[in-house]
Amino acid sequence: MRIGIIADALDAKMTGISSYTHCLISALPEIDFKNEYFIIHHKLGGLPFKAANFHELVIPTSWFDPNRTISRLYSFRSCLDHYKLDILHDLTGSAIWFNRKQINIQSIHDASCFTVPESHTFINRLINNHFLKRTISSIDHVITDSYASKKDIGKYLNIPETKISVIYLAADSGFSKLTSPDDLDEAKMVLERHDIHQPFIFSLGALVARKNLITLIKSFLYLKEHQHIPHKLVLTGMRPKRSKKLSGFYDNHPDIIFTGYVPNRELVSLYNSASCFVFPSLYEGFGLPVLEAMQCGCPVITSNVSSLPEVVGDAGLLLKDPLSVIELNGLIMRVISDQALSSNLSIQGLIQAKKFSWRKCAQGTLAVYQSVINSQK
């Protein structure tokens, strides 16, 4: 098979989709030495490995069209015709590059643009409501990250269940429980760099409405005032311009530390050092941060919604109502005041995290390629 993979997220900061792209593409050459792969993105030198059957195709952006939605389309399709691909797999979720000259497989990570549209920009909503819906007919198969997402994608995009495969993601192998003196010393330096000197509660995610950080902040401030907990609240993630409403809850508060975006190496230190990881999201397609935290041995509190119960299993505490400050107060107090519970959650999280791997994700993806090819014969 000659397989093209649209991998523009290789050139972005290491967040959810870029992590998926990087880790999947790194795992495929470990299991497949036979098929030819063409990794398509817009900056030269983005491949994290070298393999004889993997080739880098760079289709640059235009200076007057940085969003790559129009000017790139023509050169892209010309490139597809030249390389005569059997399969084109788009990891970005746009589908606008597809034509009917090859089998088209689309990764759609969630249906949040339809379930929680307020958490997306106007441009994202336009792309999903207009371009994605219009190009659904050109998609031969969809890969998604959870059974919850499969249900939502089938509902909102009217795709038959038989055309949607669930392949779980995994946390990068770099996320692990720190034990060596050197790693522990590095973790201390990371905390000092961010001025973290007390025990802390940790959360991660872009500061958008569906991450529900307002509920976490309200809960934390209540526990500081009424339970006098010694903890800080550390929030990590990119801060979009439209997060002004949220920022008012923590700007200049002495007990809330906003780190902004941090690389994975620092995230490992934060997960390992936190008293607990709280992720009260209102909707997720998978929930990589929860898995990263468990793989680092950090006790997890998260929402009992969408894909999160699939990822956490019985290894974390689940919020029945993620908007309930009172319920969240109780779960946080249970974890930070009960050492036995905290230790058990840490152990169970490490066990649960071992069920996921990028090798399994790559094997599942390759199986979909072969299945779809066979179905076309």
Description:
- The strands form 2 sheets. Strands 3-2-1-4-5-6-7 form a 7-stranded parallel beta sheet.
- Helix 5 links the parallel strand 6 and strand 7.
- The two termini are 13 Å apart.
- The chain folds into 2 domains: 188 residues, 3-Layer(aba) Sandwich (Rossmann fold), CATH 3.40.50.2000; 173 residues, 3-Layer(aba) Sandwich (Rossmann fold), CATH 3.40.50.
- It is globular.
- It has 14 helices and 13 strands.
- Helix 6 packs across helix 9, helix 7 crosses helix 12 and helix 10 crosses helix 13.
- It is an alpha/beta fold and 377 residues long.
- The mean pLDDT is 87.
Quick overview:
The protein is of the alpha/beta class. It has helices at residues 16-31, 71-83, 112-115, 122-135, 147-157, 181-193, 213-227, 244-247, 264-273, 288-295, 308-312, 325-337, 339-353, 358-375; strands at 2-6, 36-41, 54-58, 87-90, 103-107, 141-144, 164-166, 200-204, 232-236, 256-260, 276-279, 300-303, 317-319. The protein is built from 14 helices and 13 strands.
- In CATH, the architecture of the largest domain is 3-Layer(aba) Sandwich
- Please give the radius of gyration in angstroms: 21 Å
Span between termini: 13 Å
Question: Secondary-structure element sequence?
Answer: EHEEHEEHHEHEHEHEHEHEHEHEHHH
Shape descriptor reads globular
The helical percent reads 40-55%
Per DSSP, what share of the residues sits in E-state strands of 2 or more residues? 15-25%
Number of domains: 2
Number of helices: 14
CATH class of the largest domain: Alpha Beta
Total beta-strand segments: 13
Biggest β-sheet, characterized?
Answer: 7 strands, parallel
- CATH fold call of the largest domain: Rossmann fold
